């Protein structure tokens, strides 16, 4: 399932494992938690080898996708469960549980059974239950996926703030790239059991390494180009690049295309081209265009919503920052 | 959704059935329990509490009732001890094969009760399988006869017969425990032992209670096993009722015992129902 994964999480980091279903992201999480044994390889945490240890001996805690709160215990007892299991000093337990509940704003629900709480409340209790143990590493398995959209956005902000507050390393698993971009210090993109790219959200968006990454994170135009003497050509488009001669694939983000003002000359690395507007979808802040080039190529462009309605054209456009991708064949 | 006439048409037959074969007999039983038998062996319809007084006064009935409860209690304990580990093992340690193994546990229920009871007779009898084996192994010189016709034989047989009834609800309750709760427990630092006692066992209690109820109530009212293999010392309360309605021809006293049993069982079920409601969390 997973192949050649090498990943290091630093102290206090928010790392997101991003991938489609079946990419192996949950398997990776379960390997770290200890629910599944690895066939090969090692897992280390702060100088201690984890993989031979059973889950209950690892200083790692998990927030489960469907919360997994104990239905027969009160919210308080759910949160105290880990402390009691690890034989924390008896007098210390109530204080630590109350602190943890206060941190997730669930103090007033301490005596409630978890079955009566809403999804968002259950998720907070699950967080408190994990964090109260002061783990070195917190694993979160799609913790927001069961919540509705509004609540998810709110919990996203709270989660980020909470992570800053406690300073524990978070490994967060999700299939939602928007969530990954908003939360993470770094994103590890997993595809078919292999790591495609590990980088900060900005880096992974601006400098995707593979075709898969470029297409999975945000939207992009893929340009198949021929490079000759430092110039890449793709139909009518030509731009300078530093790659060796031969075939190459480039990623051109839709927002890197803009309307060329007649007053402006070609500047820097920008590529000037003509195209007609095929369709446009006005989304308020942005206007998403489908541009048809004279050679029949269709490009996606996102321009500011303030540019106003464009009639058929043709218009002059500028494109910048096409990123060369590593082809699948190149490995 | 359905017309009034349709609803009546559908609910009338079962209502009639219950009235004719359940309510009416119970009313009759209730009436009989206050009547008496004359010296001329006819039932006299003079209402009095004599039968109930007789029950309280005679040590024999109370002793048999006490023994029946003891046997039923032993059967319940043994059935739980057998069924719980089996159900746990099947539910947690087997993957795809567990449906097949579940059938293996259930299949004995298809075999007639009588056959299973007689099977124990051939195993426990003085020239039975067990005695032959013990003699062959020179553990004993002569056949031992305490095996058959004793409360022990009744407990053994009833345990064999009612264990599947205990197993089924226990297994169902174990199967209903979300597996991520067990992962959550180990994740929080609980050892497998602690996880069992703090999570699995409490969540399986409704099934344990249901299974125990089956074993206790069914074996308390059993009369075939004590009849076939209980011998004089293994007689249970139902055997007394049977004989009172049969050879002894004392229907009123039999009815009084039956009603007491009924009250006992209904009271027990009522209690269990209350405990069970306390134990369910969803």
Key features of this structure:
heterodimer; A: 331 residues; alpha+beta; Rossmann fold; OB fold (Dihydrolipoamide Acetyltransferase, E2P); 2 domains; five-stranded antiparallel β-sheet; elongated; B: 282 residues; mainly alpha; MetI-like fold; two-stranded antiparallel sheet; 12 helices; globular
Overview of this protein structure:
- The complex is a heterodimer of chains A (331) and B (282).
- In chain A, 25% of the residues lie in helices and 29% in strands.
- Chain A is α+β, with helices and mostly antiparallel strands and 331 residues long.
- Chain A folds into 2 domains: 14-213, Rossmann fold (3-Layer(aba) Sandwich), CATH 3.40.50; 219-325, Nucleic acid-binding proteins (OB fold (Dihydrolipoamide Acetyltransferase, E2P), Beta Barrel).
- In chain A, the strands form 4 sheets. In chain A, strands 4-5-6-1-7-8 form a 6-stranded mixed sheet, sandwiched between helices. A 5-stranded antiparallel sheet of chain A has the order 11-10-9-12-18. In chain A, strands 13-17-14-15-16 form a 5-stranded antiparallel sheet, with no helix packed on it.
- Chain B has one domain (60-279): MetI-like fold.
- Chain B has helices spanning 4-32, 50-57, 59-93, 98-106, 113-124, 129-136, 151-175, 179-187, 192-220, 224-230, 237-245, 251-279; strands at 36-37, 43-44.
- A two-stranded antiparallel sheet of chain B has the order 1-2.
- In chain B, helix 2 packs across helix 12, helix 3 (59-93) packs antiparallel against helix 9 (192-220) and helix 7 crosses helix 10 (224-230).
- The longest helix of chain B is centred in the first third of the chain and has 35 residues, at 59-93.
- Chain B is globular and about 75 Å long.
- In chain B, 30% of the residues are buried.
- The model of chain B has no long low-confidence stretch (mean pLDDT 90).
- The A-B interface holds A 33-35, 54-57, 60-62, 64, 66, 68-72, 81-82, 85-86, 113, 115, 129-130, 133 and B 178, 180-181, 183-192, 194, 198-199, 202-203, 281-282.
């Amino acid at each position: 399932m997973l192949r050649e994964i090498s990943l290091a999480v630093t102290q206090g980091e928010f790392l997101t494992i991003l991938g489609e279903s079946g990419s192996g992201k949950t398997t990776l999480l379960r390997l770290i938690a200890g629910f599944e044994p690895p066939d090969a390889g090692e897992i280390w945490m702060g100088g201690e080898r984890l993989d031979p240890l059973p889950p209950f001996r690892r200083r790692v805690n998990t927030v489960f996708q469907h919360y997994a709160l104990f239905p027969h215990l009160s919210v308080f007892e759910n949160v105290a469960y880990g402390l009691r299991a690890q034989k924390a000093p008896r007098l210390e337990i109530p204080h630590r549980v109350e602190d943890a509940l206060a941190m997730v704003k669930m103090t007033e629900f301490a005596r409630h059974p978890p079955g009566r709480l809403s999804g968002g409340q259950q998720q907070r209790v699950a967080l408190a239950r994990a964090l109260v143990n002061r783990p070195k590493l917190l694993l979160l398995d799609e913790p927001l996926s069961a919540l509705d959209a509004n609540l998810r956005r709110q919990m996203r902000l709270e989660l980020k703030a909470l992570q800053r507050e406690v300073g524990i390393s978070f490994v967060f698993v999700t299939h939602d790239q928007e969530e990954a971009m908003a939360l993470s210090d770094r994103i590890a993109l997993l595809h078919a059991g292999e790591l495609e790219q590990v980088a900060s959200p900005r880096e992974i968006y601006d400098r995707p390494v593979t075709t898969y990454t470029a297409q999975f994170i945000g939207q992009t135009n893929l340009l198949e180009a021929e490079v000759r003497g430092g110039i890449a050509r793709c139909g009518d488009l030509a731009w300078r690049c530093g790659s060796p001669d031969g075939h190459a694939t480039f990623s051109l983000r839709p927002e890197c295309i803009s309307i060329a003002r007649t007053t402006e000359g070609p500047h820097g690395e920008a590529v000037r081209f003509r195209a007609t507007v095929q369709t446009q979808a006005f989304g308020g802040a942005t206007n998403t265009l489908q541009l048809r080039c004279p050679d029949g190529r269709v490009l996606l462009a996102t321009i500011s919503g303030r540019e106003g309605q464009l009639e058929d054209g043709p218009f002059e456009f500028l494109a910048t920052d096409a990123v060369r991708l590593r082809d699948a064949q190149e490995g | 959704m359905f017309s009034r006439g349709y609803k009546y048409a559908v609910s009338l037959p079962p209502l009639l059935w219950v009235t004719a074969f359940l309510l009416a007999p119970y009313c009759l039983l209730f009436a009989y329990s206050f009547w008496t038998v004359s010296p001329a062996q006819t039932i006299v319809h003079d209402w009095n509490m004599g039968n109930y007084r007789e029950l309280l006064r005679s040590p024999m009935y109370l002793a048999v009732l006490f023994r029946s409860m003891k046997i039923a209690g032993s059967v319940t304990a043994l059935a739980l001890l057998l069924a719980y580990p089996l159900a746990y093992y099947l539910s947690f340690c087997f993957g795809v094969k567990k449906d097949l193994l579940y059938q293996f546990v259930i299949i004995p229920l298809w075999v007639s009760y009588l056959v299973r009871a007689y099977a124990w007779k051939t195993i426990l009898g003085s020239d039975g399988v067990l005695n032959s084996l013990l003699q062959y192994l020179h553990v004993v010189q002569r056949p031992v006869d305490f095996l058959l016709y004793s409360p022990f034989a009744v407990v053994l047989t009833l345990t064999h017969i009612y264990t599947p009834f205990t197993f089924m609800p226990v297994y169902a309750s174990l199967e209903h425990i979300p597996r991520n709760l067990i992962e959550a427990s180990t994740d929080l630092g609980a050892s497998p032992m602690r996880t069992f006692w703090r999570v699995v066992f409490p969540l399986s209690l409704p099934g344990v209670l249901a299974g125990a109820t089956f074993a206790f109530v069914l074996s308390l009212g059993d009369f075939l096993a004590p009849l076939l293999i209980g011998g004089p010392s293994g007689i249970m309360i139902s055997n007394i009722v049977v004989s009172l309605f049969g050879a002894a021809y004392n229907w009123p006293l039999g009815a009084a015992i039956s009603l007491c049993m009924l009250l006992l069982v209904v009271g027990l079920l009522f209690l269990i129902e209350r405990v069970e409601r306390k134990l369910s969390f969803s």
